[in-house]
Amino acid sequence: MMRTATGIAVVTGAGSGIGRAVAVELSSRSITVIAVGRREDALRETAKLAQGRVCVVSTDVGDPSEYRKILSEIDREGGKVRYVVHAAGVSIIEPLRRITPESWRRAMATNLDGRLFLTLHLLPRLEKGSRILFVGSNSATRPRKSSTSYCVSKAGSYMLQECLKMELSGEGILVTSAIPSPVHTALLEDQMAADPEVFPDALEYRREQREGRLISPWTVGRFYRWLLAEVPDDEYSARQWNIQDNSHHRFWLGNDDLFRP
Ligand SMILES: NC(=O)c1ccc[n+]([C@@H]2O[C@H](COP(=O)([O-])OP(=O)(O)OC[C@H]3O[C@@H](n4cnc5c(N)ncnc54)[C@H](OP(=O)(O)O)[C@@H]3O)[C@@H](O)[C@H]2O)c1
């Protein structure tokens, strides 16, 4: 049975790429989106692209002292959150010996700490049936040269969602993660532009681009909207989802091509 999609969604990283596409997709389903990111102009651009209501909150997800801005916006919009999408992320490409405490902390604060502490701050506003979605990554299980902080933060993020899934299931709050890769976004552009001597995986991404095998963020937006708004409760948290798994394509992609926007 199709779920009725209404309520509030908090989407981080909503100023570009995957977060922007999810925000726009959810807003088209009468869901009020609280769009979170650091660049206010980028978030306003997302709001302009959306058909529905998108509230802009310029916030660093790695800084819990800023979360009151998000909570106030939620309370202004009615107080209860139905969906949380953790999309904010940074990829810092640096050789192992160049990692500094500052660069390490920035990666962890954005990619891992923010996902935990923002979730904890939102819990009082989540109710039975609310859904949390982590943007997953192959880098959680695949080591990449000069990408240690990214890979470690993504591995931590995977285990964080597993722990949240276990702890919150008793309260009827559903948690899962979904791998979207490889998605043609600013983050991937930076990875493709990197010196292959430093970051050899740049060559793999460039080859995938040449072969037309990069996925549009708008396609990921459709996938995530389906997951959040239409997948039944008992299936939602039952596994880690992967956009490349074609067993679910007929439900949200139809006859369209995964690699064509
Ligand atoms: N592209 C891929 O192939 C791929 C594959 C697997 C997973 N992912 C994951 O997907 C997520 C979205 O990335 P993307 O590919 O869509 O790249 P993107 O366009 O660069 O999006 C990343 C977003 O995160 C926001 N952000 C970064 N640091 C932040 C902070 N401290 N606080 C709040 N927002 C912050 C950025 O906006 P501001 O700079 O304005 O804050 C930006 O809008 C990331 O977690 C990434 O690791 C991407």
Produce a short descriptive summary.
With 261 residues, the chain is of the alpha/beta class. It has helices spanning 17-27, 40-49, 67-76, 101-122, 148-168, 186-193, 201-210, 217-229, 233-236, 249-252; strands at residues 7-12, 31-37, 54-58, 81-86, 126-135, 174-179, 241-242. The protein has a seven-stranded parallel β-sheet with strand order 3-2-1-4-5-6-7, sandwiched between helices.
Write structural notes for this entry.
This protein is α/β, with parallel strands linked by helices and 261 residues long. It has a single domain, classed as NAD(P)-binding Rossmann-like Domain (Rossmann fold), CATH 3.40.50.720. It is built from ten helices and seven strands. The chain has helices spanning 17-27, 40-49, 67-76, 101-122, 148-168, 186-193, 201-210, 217-229, 233-236, 249-252, and strands spanning 7-12, 31-37, 54-58, 81-86, 126-135, 174-179, 241-242. The longest helix is centred in the middle third of the chain and has 22 residues, at 101-122. The protein is globular and about 50 Å long. The mean pLDDT is 96. The chain binds NADP nicotinamide-adenine-dinucleotide phosphate. Residues 12-13, 15-19, 37-39, 42, 60-62, 87-90, 110, 135, 137, 180-183, 185-188, 217 line the site of NADP nicotinamide-adenine-dinucleotide phosphate.
